[in-house]
């Protein structure tokens, strides 16, 4: 009898934990998605963006959410099925929150064509779904933090002691890609990116690259932010720079090019202007990549 009660208690606790996770996800979708939900350029993109590019962005977002859910899902995930479940829920929350906010703001009206309504919701659901998963990481309470610490202690007891810089090189690069993509989605649709790139000279571009790389390295290894990675005295300074910072900047650059292409910013654009636009967008992308390594 006591065993049955314990099982019921565990089930109720799991349900409550999952509902709390849903609440955090909805809050995260709102918090991290609101800058884009109130940006006119993204409203317009939902109307005129080529549908096959939008469809590709939605498809690319699926494996990204699955991998991110495995890292910071609504609950601790141990299987691919659980990660897929959390990714599906995050996508659903992103769609619902995006639709609700756009309707509330009057940007979606009954007389609009269905393709325009779906386009606006779809393009907004990508950053909102990422925000839904980030809600667990950033909006988790003390209990969630204690669970994370307990999991880390269990891993250490089992012998899975993390490396001084990273437990997985590919995971670190993936997190940087997520951070770069999320921040790029905020600014890539704006006209300012193209205007800045047009006004920049090669010397400005070179300085922007150096500053972006310096900020990336400083955020993660130099300044004392919470989550800063420490390098032992035996490890040379250039190890982290060439292993993480430079590859991370290249990841941010590739993500920037992809986002610019998705939004049609590279159409009928010469190679020089394309590179300039990518360098400009890689500045916030690099900051997002560095921040992702600290907070995820």
Describe the structure.
The structure is a single chain. The chain has 296 residues and is mostly helical. 79% of the residues lie in helices and 0% in strands. The chain is built from 11 helices and no strands. It has helices spanning 2-37, 40-48, 51-72, 80-104, 114-139, 142-157, 169-187, 191-199, 202-222, 237-262, 271-295. Helix 4 (80-104) crosses helix 5, helix 9 crosses helix 10 and helix 9 runs parallel beside helix 11 (271-295). The longest helix has 36 residues, at 2-37. The protein is flat, with a radius of gyration of 21 Å. The N and C termini lie far apart (42 Å). 35% of the residues are buried.
Please name the defining characteristics of this protein.
single chain; mainly alpha; 11 helices; 0% strand
Write the layout of secondary structure elements.
Blueprint: H1 2-37, H2 40-48, H3 51-72, H4 80-104, H5 114-139, H6 142-157, H7 169-187, H8 191-199, H9 202-222, H10 237-262, H11 271-295
Overall pLDDT level: 81
Uncertain spans: 142-146, 148-166
Characterize the largest beta sheet: strand count, sense, and whether it forms a barrel: none
State the helicity in percent bands.
over 70%
Give a short summary of the structure.
The chain is mostly helical. Helix content is about 80%, strand content about 0%.
